[in-house]
């Protein structure tokens, strides 16, 4: 595959970064994951706006205008044969001698790669997935899409070790989100998802789900559900750019609702597929 690194398109195995990059030494950077359908970056303007917000949150100056980002992204998609892809974009604070204090006058490092965007498994839509709950051990700026994913990785691995596909995170007795997804509970026909604050990532897929629900007159509240409400929910879903919206049918080994993907999920999934076309 062809990647983009600091102004150049080159084969992935020829791309090299310094061991002094602050992304490598300090996890000092932010990222985006952007789905590409049939050669077109999906909801690109929204991803670029969130990138701007993340950069602002960590005090890195945006190295490119939206026009420049769009050009780089369109070129990278074409160089990787269009079709469906998952684009990964990251900006780190740059290369400097190791120091917690920001370096002065250093250009950020910019890296983009194209990964396969695998279609969501049919079995996930027919049977749903398994999830576990675990304590949300992350910091208090989860609204920043930081490359520093050690906590997320530990929690996702805990799910994997339990034979589950996602970990749902509990902070102070309330569901925040998944280790790599936003989360939803459906209770008596009403969809709940945690509000946008420093405890969750403002998911692009989440925003779309909220808009689709509003247009279809499906009741939805941006309100966090308690752990006990979650355990009694009729439906649980997760969403992300790479997985769209997926039903959870087993939580900590207990059946969720009917044990099958629920009717509200079916409706949202259909709306999502329609919107994607
Ligand atoms: N993760 N919350 C967290 C913690 C995430 O890592 C993600 C996505 C989301 C969903 O956001 P969006 O709908 O914008 O993809 C929510 C990406 C896919 C990743 O890290 O690979």
Structure characterization notes:
It is a single chain. The chain has 277 residues and is α+β, with helices and mostly antiparallel strands. It has two domains: 2-116, D-amino Acid Aminotransferase, Chain A, domain 1, CATH 3.30.470; 122-276, D-amino Acid Aminotransferase, Chain A, domain 2 (Alpha-Beta Barrel). It contains eight helices and 15 strands. The protein has helices at residues 22-26, 44-57, 66-79, 122-127, 150-161, 204-215, 227-231, 263-276, and strands at residues 2-5, 8-11, 29-37, 40-41, 85-92, 109-116, 129-135, 166-171, 174-178, 182-187, 190-193, 220-222, 235-240, 244-251, 254-255. Strands 7, 8, 9, 10, 11, 12, 13, 14 and 15 form a nine-stranded mixed β-sheet that branches. Strands 2-1-6-5-3-4 form a six-stranded antiparallel β-sheet. A hairpin with a 2-residue loop joins strand 14 and strand 15. The longest helix has 14 residues, at 44-57. The chain is globular and about 55 Å long. The mean pLDDT is 98. Residues 33, 152, 177, 180-182, 201, 203-206, 239-242 line the site of N-(5'-phosphopyridoxyl)-D-alanine.
